[in-house]
TrEMBL record:
InterPro entries, per the entry: Homeodomain-like_sf (IPR009057), IS30-like_HTH (IPR025246), Transposase_Tc1-like (IPR002492), WH-like_DNA-bd_sf (IPR036388)
Database matches in SUPFAM superfamilies: Homeodomain-like
Species for this entry: Trichonephila clavipes
Name this polypeptide is given: Transposable element Tc1 transposase
Domain Transposase IS30-like HTH intervals: 11-48
Gene: X975_10011
Length: 137
């Protein structure tokens, strides 16, 4: 019997693997035999098979997680706000966002949205200010 996966707490079952589970069950293998072949828990095999017999499909159900309240337009607005003031922190952007739109938003959501758009936090370098005779001409 092949080894079970260790250290992996959670992993989505691919569509191919779901089809393989259904095919092995239709071939007459038991839940435990299928679980050993695909290296999954037998309760997972039972759940996939039950979904296949009840609904006739093995696709994942959509809608897990929170709904996205912001639209693409809101994301563009947020990026514009971040680009106009490059030194603003995410908390400052939260304050600007809530006054502009009236919708509350957490700082981690703003950071995640900006990261998805390719904007990362940049820490400005600390430098000694130049004297007038050292300014570039």
């Amino acid at each position: 019997m092949p080894r079970r996966r260790k250290g992996v707490k959670f992993e989505q079952i691919s569509e191919f693997e779901r089809g393989r589970i259904v095919g092995l069950r239709e071939a007459g293998l038991s839940y435990r035999a299928v679980a050993a072949r695909v290296q999954r828990n037998s309760s997972t095999i039972m759940r996939v098979w039950k979904q296949w017999t009840d609904e006739g499909q093995t696709a994942r159900k959509s809608g897990s997680g929170l709904r996205n309240v912001r639209s693409a337009r809101d994301d563009r607005r947020l990026v514009r706000m971040a680009q106009t003031d490059r030194t603003a922190s995410s908390r400052q952007l939260v304050a600007q966002w809530s006054t502009a739109t009236g919708v509350s938003l957490c700082a981690s959501s703003i950071r995640r949205r900006l990261l998805q758009r390719g904007l990362r936090a940049r820490i400005p370098l600390y430098r000694i200010p130049l004297t007038q005779n050292l300014w570039p001409r």
